[in-house]
Design goal:
This protein is α+β, with helices and mostly antiparallel strands and 215 residues long. The protein contains seven helices and eight strands. The strands form two sheets. Strands 7-6-1-3-2-8 form a six-stranded mixed beta sheet, with helices on one face. This is Peptide methionine sulfoxide reductase MsrA. InterPro entries: Met_Sox_Rdtase_MsrA_dom, Met_Sox_Rdtase_MsrA_sf. GO terms for molecular function: peptide-methionine (S)-S-oxide reductase activity.
């Protein structure tokens, strides 16, 4: 009789352990799926002409891709010519896909603020107009918090000698720019604009962020 009770109890315990193991395996599989789904994240920055800035972020470790495009305007699928009028309200931006395990959003913000002049309203160098405004389009509340905090610190320490005017706004529909805008520096490295405007920015990147660059 005691043997029967012991055998029954063992079977019950076995079934319980089997259920627990199945539950643990399910949770583990879900966590792995979530981790794989979070392999990459997006960051979107406007910092003047995207010809100048695309090549900067392409060189960073952990950056998977960089797309030049338009964001923050009033019409869908704008053309470059329409954006250049300033009437559509779009900014020239970069949509950056990155691996947060290799480069953080804070790192990207640091490169963003040190690679253009965030104190000039609707202007970067000779480029003037709302399409060249300094703007961060955040994708998550965490990105907004980091951007706001970083901007406040820059102004509190008077880092640029002038007020940072970079706008921090929720992400809006992003429209990929025409194909000839993509990989502009890579495809036109010998062009006068690339040598005179973009190359100095890349040389500065090499000096300031050498440890963050791809080999």
């Amino acid at each position: 009789m005691n043997n029967q009770i012991a055998s029954s109890q063992m079977k019950t315990n076995y079934k319980r352990m089997k259920k627990i193991i199945l539950i643990l395996l399910s949770v583990l599989a879900l966590n792995q799926a979530n981790a794989q789904g979070k392999k990459t994240e997006k960051a979107t920055f406007g910092m003047g002409c995207f010809w100048c800035t695309e090549a900067i972020f392409q060189k960073l470790k952990g950056v998977v891709s960089v797309k030049s495009g338009y964001e923050g305007g009033k019409i869908a699928n704008p053309t470059y010519e329409e954006v250049c009028t300033g009437f559509t309200g779009h900014a020239e931006v970069l949509e950056i896909t990155y691996n947060p395990m290799q480069i953080t959003y804070k790192d990207l913000l640091e490169v963003f603020w040190k690679s253009h002049d965030p104190t000039t309203l609707n202007r970067q160098g000779a480029d003037s107009g709302t399409q060249y405004r300094s703007v961060i389009f955040y994708h998550t509340p965490e990105q907004k918090e980091l951007a706001d905090k970083y901007k406040a610190e820059l102004n509190a320490t008077n880092a640029y000698g002038k007020k940072v005017v970079t706008a921090v706004e929720a992400a809006k529909p992003f429209y990929v720019a025409e194909s000839y805008h993509q990989n502009y520096y890579k495809n036109n490295a010998d062009a006068p604009y690339c040598r005179l405007v973009i190359l100095p920015k890349l040389e500065k990147l090499e000096k300031v962020f050498k440890a963050k660059l791809k080999n």
